[in-house]
Amino acid sequence: MKKKVTKIGVLTSGGDAPGMNAGIRAVVRTGIYNGLEVYGIMRGYNGMVENDIFKMESRSVANIIQRGGTILKTSRCKEFFTPEGRKKAYDNLTKLGINGLVIIGGDGSFRGAQTFSNEYDIPCVGLPGTIDKDIAGTDFTIGFDTAVNTAVEAIDKIRDTADAHDRLFIIEVMGRDAGYIALHSGIATGAENVLIPERKTDIEEVIKQLAEKERRHKLVNLIVVAEGDEFGGADEIAKIIKERLPMQDVRVCILGHIQRGGSPTCFDRLIASRMGYSAVECLMEGKFNVFVGMINNRMHYIPLNEAVKKKQRISEEWMKIVKILAS
Ligand code: ADP
Protein backbone atom coordinates (compact mmCIF):
# COMPACT_ATOMS: atom_id res chain seq x y z
CA MET A 1 0.00 0.00 0.00
CA LYS A 2 1.46 3.34 -1.11
CA LYS A 3 1.69 6.24 1.33
CA LYS A 4 -0.82 9.03 0.86
CA VAL A 5 0.61 11.97 -1.05
CA THR A 6 0.53 15.15 1.03
CA LYS A 7 3.31 17.36 -0.31
CA ILE A 8 4.13 17.57 -3.97
CA GLY A 9 6.92 19.16 -5.96
CA VAL A 10 6.59 20.52 -9.49
CA LEU A 11 9.40 21.16 -11.96
CA THR A 12 9.99 21.93 -15.63
CA SER A 13 12.84 20.06 -17.28
CA GLY A 14 14.62 19.72 -20.64
CA GLY A 15 13.62 21.88 -23.61
CA ASP A 16 11.23 24.72 -22.79
CA ALA A 17 7.80 24.94 -24.37
CA PRO A 18 5.10 27.63 -24.31
CA GLY A 19 2.31 26.54 -21.97
CA MET A 20 4.60 25.16 -19.27
CA ASN A 21 3.51 28.05 -17.04
CA ALA A 22 -0.14 27.14 -17.51
CA GLY A 23 0.77 23.59 -16.46
CA ILE A 24 2.59 24.80 -13.31
CA ARG A 25 -0.38 27.00 -12.43
CA ALA A 26 -2.80 24.09 -12.78
CA VAL A 27 -0.68 21.79 -10.61
CA VAL A 28 -0.23 24.41 -7.88
CA ARG A 29 -3.87 25.44 -7.71
CA THR A 30 -5.31 21.91 -7.97
CA GLY A 31 -2.88 20.75 -5.27
CA ILE A 32 -3.80 23.57 -2.91
CA TYR A 33 -7.52 23.09 -3.62
CA ASN A 34 -7.11 19.48 -2.46
CA GLY A 35 -5.26 20.43 0.72
CA LEU A 36 -1.77 19.48 -0.49
CA GLU A 37 1.36 21.53 0.05
CA VAL A 38 3.00 22.39 -3.25
CA TYR A 39 6.69 23.14 -3.78
CA GLY A 40 8.34 24.68 -6.82
CA ILE A 41 11.64 23.11 -7.87
CA MET A 42 13.95 25.39 -9.85
CA ARG A 43 15.82 24.55 -13.09
CA GLY A 44 14.61 21.02 -13.60
CA TYR A 45 16.34 18.23 -11.70
CA ASN A 46 19.11 20.68 -10.71
CA GLY A 47 16.78 22.20 -8.11
CA MET A 48 16.25 18.78 -6.55
CA VAL A 49 19.98 18.01 -6.44
CA GLU A 50 20.95 21.48 -5.17
CA ASN A 51 17.98 21.98 -2.87
CA ASP A 52 16.63 24.98 -4.75
CA ILE A 53 13.04 24.34 -3.73
CA PHE A 54 10.42 26.77 -2.39
CA LYS A 55 6.89 26.56 -1.12
CA MET A 56 4.27 27.86 -3.53
CA GLU A 57 0.96 29.51 -2.80
CA SER A 58 -1.98 30.16 -5.06
CA ARG A 59 -0.66 33.70 -5.65
CA SER A 60 2.75 32.37 -6.73
CA VAL A 61 1.18 31.46 -10.06
CA ALA A 62 -0.88 34.61 -10.58
CA ASN A 63 -0.58 36.29 -13.97
CA ILE A 64 1.44 33.53 -15.65
CA ILE A 65 -1.11 31.57 -17.71
CA GLN A 66 -0.48 33.81 -20.74
CA ARG A 67 3.31 33.86 -20.46
CA GLY A 68 5.75 31.75 -22.51
CA GLY A 69 8.88 30.27 -20.93
CA THR A 70 8.66 28.84 -17.42
CA ILE A 71 8.75 30.68 -14.08
CA LEU A 72 10.54 27.66 -12.58
CA LYS A 73 13.24 27.86 -15.30
CA THR A 74 14.39 24.72 -17.03
CA SER A 75 17.70 23.07 -17.76
CA ARG A 76 19.45 19.80 -18.27
CA CYS A 77 21.05 18.18 -15.22
CA LYS A 78 24.12 15.99 -15.60
CA GLU A 79 24.21 14.98 -11.94
CA PHE A 80 20.76 13.43 -12.16
CA PHE A 81 22.16 10.80 -14.53
CA THR A 82 24.29 9.48 -11.63
CA PRO A 83 23.04 7.44 -8.63
CA GLU A 84 24.84 9.93 -6.31
CA GLY A 85 23.00 12.85 -7.87
CA ARG A 86 19.64 11.13 -7.51
CA LYS A 87 20.43 10.21 -3.88
CA LYS A 88 21.12 13.89 -3.13
CA ALA A 89 17.83 14.78 -4.81
CA TYR A 90 15.97 12.20 -2.73
CA ASP A 91 17.53 13.42 0.53
CA ASN A 92 16.57 17.01 -0.26
CA LEU A 93 12.99 16.05 -1.06
CA THR A 94 12.56 13.90 2.05
CA LYS A 95 13.97 16.67 4.28
CA LEU A 96 11.01 18.77 3.16
CA GLY A 97 8.60 15.84 3.33
CA ILE A 98 7.85 15.97 -0.41
CA ASN A 99 6.24 12.65 -1.33
CA GLY A 100 5.03 13.19 -4.89
CA LEU A 101 6.43 14.86 -8.03
CA VAL A 102 5.02 16.37 -11.19
CA ILE A 103 7.56 16.62 -14.01
CA ILE A 104 6.75 18.83 -16.99
CA GLY A 105 9.11 17.96 -19.84
CA GLY A 106 9.95 15.76 -22.78
CA ASP A 107 10.87 12.09 -23.10
CA GLY A 108 14.33 12.66 -21.59
CA SER A 109 12.80 14.16 -18.47
CA PHE A 110 10.37 11.23 -18.31
CA ARG A 111 13.28 8.81 -18.48
CA GLY A 112 14.84 10.61 -15.51
CA ALA A 113 11.55 10.44 -13.60
CA GLN A 114 11.22 6.75 -14.26
CA THR A 115 14.75 5.96 -13.14
CA PHE A 116 14.19 8.03 -9.98
CA SER A 117 10.89 6.48 -9.00
CA ASN A 118 12.23 2.97 -9.67
CA GLU A 119 14.93 3.67 -7.07
CA TYR A 120 13.00 5.68 -4.50
CA ASP A 121 9.57 5.66 -2.99
CA ILE A 122 8.47 8.95 -4.53
CA PRO A 123 5.68 8.68 -7.09
CA CYS A 124 6.25 10.68 -10.27
CA VAL A 125 3.71 11.87 -12.80
CA GLY A 126 4.68 13.52 -16.09
CA LEU A 127 3.08 16.24 -18.18
CA PRO A 128 4.23 16.09 -21.83
CA GLY A 129 5.81 19.48 -22.49
CA THR A 130 7.68 19.72 -25.78
CA ILE A 131 7.21 21.75 -28.95
CA ASP A 132 8.22 18.73 -31.05
CA LYS A 133 5.21 16.50 -30.24
CA ASP A 134 7.59 13.54 -30.23
CA ILE A 135 6.02 11.62 -27.35
CA ALA A 136 4.08 8.48 -28.12
CA GLY A 137 0.77 7.88 -26.32
CA THR A 138 -0.65 11.40 -26.58
CA ASP A 139 -2.25 13.22 -29.48
CA PHE A 140 -0.72 16.54 -28.42
CA THR A 141 2.02 17.89 -26.21
CA ILE A 142 2.09 21.23 -24.40
CA GLY A 143 3.79 23.83 -26.62
CA PHE A 144 3.35 22.19 -30.01
CA ASP A 145 0.32 24.20 -31.05
CA THR A 146 1.99 27.51 -30.17
CA ALA A 147 5.20 26.59 -31.97
CA VAL A 148 3.40 25.46 -35.07
CA ASN A 149 1.27 28.63 -35.15
CA THR A 150 4.41 30.75 -34.80
CA ALA A 151 5.89 28.87 -37.76
CA VAL A 152 2.71 29.35 -39.82
CA GLU A 153 2.66 33.09 -39.12
CA ALA A 154 6.30 33.42 -40.18
CA ILE A 155 5.90 31.26 -43.30
CA ASP A 156 2.86 33.31 -44.43
CA LYS A 157 5.06 36.41 -44.28
CA ILE A 158 7.79 34.66 -46.23
CA ARG A 159 5.24 33.71 -48.88
CA ASP A 160 4.44 37.39 -49.46
CA THR A 161 8.04 38.25 -50.22
CA ALA A 162 8.55 35.01 -52.19
CA ASP A 163 5.57 35.95 -54.32
CA ALA A 164 6.79 39.51 -54.92
CA HIS A 165 10.10 38.24 -56.31
CA ASP A 166 9.16 34.84 -57.76
CA ARG A 167 11.49 33.09 -55.37
CA LEU A 168 11.92 29.64 -53.98
CA PHE A 169 12.20 29.71 -50.20
CA ILE A 170 13.55 26.85 -48.15
CA ILE A 171 12.30 27.35 -44.61
CA GLU A 172 13.83 25.42 -41.75
CA VAL A 173 11.70 24.74 -38.70
CA MET A 174 12.58 22.99 -35.44
CA GLY A 175 12.51 19.21 -35.12
CA ARG A 176 15.75 17.33 -34.70
CA ASP A 177 14.07 13.92 -34.53
CA ALA A 178 10.46 14.72 -35.31
CA GLY A 179 8.84 16.33 -38.34
CA TYR A 180 5.51 17.38 -36.87
CA ILE A 181 6.16 21.13 -36.84
CA ALA A 182 7.30 20.86 -40.47
CA LEU A 183 4.39 18.69 -41.55
CA HIS A 184 1.63 20.69 -39.85
CA SER A 185 3.01 24.10 -40.79
CA GLY A 186 3.84 22.90 -44.32
CA ILE A 187 0.28 21.76 -45.02
CA ALA A 188 -1.19 24.86 -43.38
CA THR A 189 0.90 27.24 -45.51
CA GLY A 190 0.56 25.38 -48.79
CA ALA A 191 4.20 24.31 -49.06
CA GLU A 192 5.31 22.44 -52.20
CA ASN A 193 7.19 19.92 -50.17
CA VAL A 194 7.90 18.96 -46.58
CA LEU A 195 11.15 17.23 -45.67
CA ILE A 196 11.22 15.43 -42.33
CA PRO A 197 13.56 13.14 -40.39
CA GLU A 198 11.08 10.26 -40.26
CA ARG A 199 11.17 9.73 -44.03
CA LYS A 200 14.01 9.36 -46.45
CA THR A 201 14.28 12.48 -48.56
CA ASP A 202 14.23 11.70 -52.26
CA ILE A 203 16.18 14.75 -53.43
CA GLU A 204 15.85 13.68 -57.09
CA GLU A 205 12.09 13.76 -56.71
CA VAL A 206 12.26 17.25 -55.13
CA ILE A 207 14.38 18.50 -58.07
CA LYS A 208 12.07 16.83 -60.59
CA GLN A 209 9.01 18.52 -59.07
CA LEU A 210 10.71 21.93 -59.06
CA ALA A 211 11.93 21.53 -62.63
CA GLU A 212 8.41 20.63 -63.69
CA LYS A 213 7.08 23.74 -61.98
CA GLU A 214 9.80 25.83 -63.62
CA ARG A 215 8.53 24.64 -67.02
CA ARG A 216 5.02 25.75 -66.03
CA HIS A 217 6.45 29.11 -64.86
CA LYS A 218 5.35 28.43 -61.31
CA LEU A 219 8.21 30.12 -59.56
CA VAL A 220 6.88 30.83 -56.10
CA ASN A 221 7.65 27.77 -54.10
CA LEU A 222 8.01 27.06 -50.42
CA ILE A 223 9.77 24.00 -49.08
CA VAL A 224 9.56 23.38 -45.35
CA VAL A 225 12.43 21.38 -43.86
CA ALA A 226 12.74 20.04 -40.33
CA GLU A 227 16.21 20.75 -38.90
CA GLY A 228 16.84 17.01 -38.48
CA ASP A 229 16.23 16.13 -42.13
CA GLU A 230 18.89 13.71 -43.40
CA PHE A 231 20.35 16.33 -45.77
CA GLY A 232 21.28 18.52 -42.81
CA GLY A 233 18.69 21.29 -42.94
CA ALA A 234 17.74 24.16 -45.25
CA ASP A 235 21.24 25.40 -46.18
CA GLU A 236 22.29 22.03 -47.53
CA ILE A 237 19.07 21.54 -49.49
CA ALA A 238 19.43 25.05 -50.98
CA LYS A 239 22.99 24.31 -52.08
CA ILE A 240 21.91 21.20 -53.98
CA ILE A 241 18.95 22.92 -55.62
CA LYS A 242 21.04 25.93 -56.70
CA GLU A 243 23.53 23.62 -58.36
CA ARG A 244 20.92 21.59 -60.17
CA LEU A 245 18.46 24.38 -61.06
CA PRO A 246 20.51 27.55 -61.60
CA MET A 247 17.43 29.43 -62.90
CA GLN A 248 15.78 29.25 -59.48
CA ASP A 249 16.19 32.28 -57.21
CA VAL A 250 16.65 30.37 -53.96
CA ARG A 251 16.57 31.86 -50.46
CA VAL A 252 16.86 30.23 -47.05
CA CYS A 253 15.11 31.22 -43.84
CA ILE A 254 15.83 29.44 -40.56
CA LEU A 255 13.08 30.20 -38.05
CA GLY A 256 15.05 29.05 -35.01
CA HIS A 257 14.20 29.91 -31.43
CA ILE A 258 11.22 32.15 -32.12
CA GLN A 259 9.33 28.84 -32.26
CA ARG A 260 9.97 28.27 -28.56
CA GLY A 261 8.79 31.63 -27.30
CA GLY A 262 5.65 33.70 -27.15
CA SER A 263 2.32 33.62 -25.45
CA PRO A 264 0.81 30.11 -25.56
CA THR A 265 -2.23 29.56 -27.77
CA CYS A 266 -5.64 28.90 -26.25
CA PHE A 267 -5.20 25.22 -27.13
CA ASP A 268 -1.88 24.92 -25.28
CA ARG A 269 -3.22 26.76 -22.22
CA LEU A 270 -6.25 24.50 -22.20
CA ILE A 271 -4.41 21.18 -22.47
CA ALA A 272 -1.78 22.34 -19.94
CA SER A 273 -4.56 23.26 -17.50
CA ARG A 274 -6.40 19.97 -18.01
CA MET A 275 -3.21 17.90 -17.83
CA GLY A 276 -1.98 19.71 -14.70
CA TYR A 277 -5.30 19.11 -12.99
CA SER A 278 -5.25 15.42 -13.98
CA ALA A 279 -1.66 14.97 -12.78
CA VAL A 280 -2.61 15.98 -9.23
CA GLU A 281 -5.71 13.76 -9.31
CA CYS A 282 -3.47 10.95 -10.48
CA LEU A 283 -1.03 11.36 -7.57
CA MET A 284 -3.92 11.47 -5.10
CA GLU A 285 -5.38 8.28 -6.58
CA GLY A 286 -2.04 6.58 -5.88
CA LYS A 287 -1.13 6.04 -9.52
CA PHE A 288 2.46 6.74 -10.47
CA ASN A 289 5.15 6.21 -13.09
CA VAL A 290 2.70 7.50 -15.64
CA PHE A 291 2.23 10.64 -17.66
CA VAL A 292 -0.97 12.42 -18.53
CA GLY A 293 -1.66 12.11 -22.23
CA MET A 294 -4.57 13.25 -24.34
CA ILE A 295 -6.24 10.76 -26.65
CA ASN A 296 -9.35 11.81 -28.60
CA ASN A 297 -9.76 14.84 -26.33
CA ARG A 298 -9.79 12.78 -23.13
CA MET A 299 -7.06 12.59 -20.52
CA HIS A 300 -5.44 9.20 -19.94
CA TYR A 301 -2.68 7.97 -17.65
CA ILE A 302 -0.01 6.32 -19.77
CA PRO A 303 3.02 4.40 -18.43
CA LEU A 304 6.14 6.59 -18.63
CA ASN A 305 8.06 3.92 -20.49
CA GLU A 306 5.61 4.10 -23.41
CA ALA A 307 6.60 7.71 -23.96
CA VAL A 308 10.27 7.05 -23.96
CA LYS A 309 11.42 7.35 -27.55
CA LYS A 310 8.61 5.33 -28.99
CA LYS A 311 7.87 7.81 -31.75
CA GLN A 312 4.49 8.89 -32.96
CA ARG A 313 3.88 7.57 -36.43
CA ILE A 314 3.83 10.02 -39.34
CA SER A 315 0.68 9.52 -41.36
CA GLU A 316 1.35 8.54 -44.98
CA GLU A 317 -1.96 10.13 -45.87
CA TRP A 318 -0.69 13.51 -44.65
CA MET A 319 2.36 13.22 -46.91
CA LYS A 320 0.04 12.42 -49.81
CA ILE A 321 -2.02 15.51 -48.97
CA VAL A 322 1.11 17.69 -49.16
CA LYS A 323 1.84 16.33 -52.65
CA ILE A 324 -1.68 16.57 -54.05
CA LEU A 325 -2.42 20.05 -52.72
CA ALA A 326 0.86 21.50 -53.95
CA SER A 327 0.40 20.48 -57.56
P1 ADP B 1 13.67 16.54 -22.70
O1 ADP B 1 12.89 16.27 -21.47
O2 ADP B 1 13.31 17.84 -23.32
O3 ADP B 1 13.66 15.37 -23.66
P2 ADP B 1 16.51 15.91 -21.98
O4 ADP B 1 16.56 14.69 -22.84
O5 ADP B 1 17.62 16.85 -22.07
O6 ADP B 1 15.20 16.80 -22.25
O7 ADP B 1 16.37 15.43 -20.46
C1 ADP B 1 16.23 16.36 -19.41
C2 ADP B 1 16.93 15.88 -18.17
O8 ADP B 1 16.31 14.67 -17.68
C3 ADP B 1 18.39 15.50 -18.31
O9 ADP B 1 19.25 16.62 -18.30
C4 ADP B 1 18.60 14.67 -17.06
O10 ADP B 1 18.75 15.46 -15.92
C5 ADP B 1 17.27 13.90 -16.97
N1 ADP B 1 17.41 12.56 -17.58
C6 ADP B 1 17.23 12.20 -18.87
N2 ADP B 1 17.47 10.89 -19.06
C7 ADP B 1 17.81 10.38 -17.86
C8 ADP B 1 18.19 9.09 -17.37
N3 ADP B 1 18.25 8.03 -18.18
N4 ADP B 1 18.49 8.96 -16.06
C9 ADP B 1 18.42 10.01 -15.23
N5 ADP B 1 18.09 11.26 -15.61
C10 ADP B 1 17.79 11.45 -16.91
Structure in words:
There is one protein chain. With about 325 residues, the chain is an alpha/beta fold. The chain folds into 2 domains: about 5-145 and about 265-310, Rossmann fold, CATH 3.40.50; about 145-260, 3-Layer(aba) Sandwich (Rossmann fold), CATH 3.40.50.460. The chain is built from 11 helices and 11 strands. It has helices at about 20-35, 45-50, 85-95, 105-120, 145-165, 180-190, 205-215, 235-245, 265-285, 305, 315-325; strands at about 5-10, 35-40, 55, 100-105, 125-130, 170-175, 195, 220-225, 250-255, 290-295, 300-305. The strands form 2 sheets. The protein has a 7-stranded mixed sheet with strand order 3-2-1-4-5-10-11, with helices on both faces. It has a 4-stranded parallel sheet with strand order 7-8-6-9, sandwiched between helices. Strand 1 (about 5-10), helix 1 (about 20-35) and strand 2 (about 35-40) form a beta-alpha-beta unit. The radius of gyration is 22 Å and the shape is elongated. The mean pLDDT is about 95. Adenosine-5'-diphosphate (ADP) binds near residues 13, 76, 105, 107 and 109. Adenosine-5'-diphosphate (ADP) binds next to helix 4.
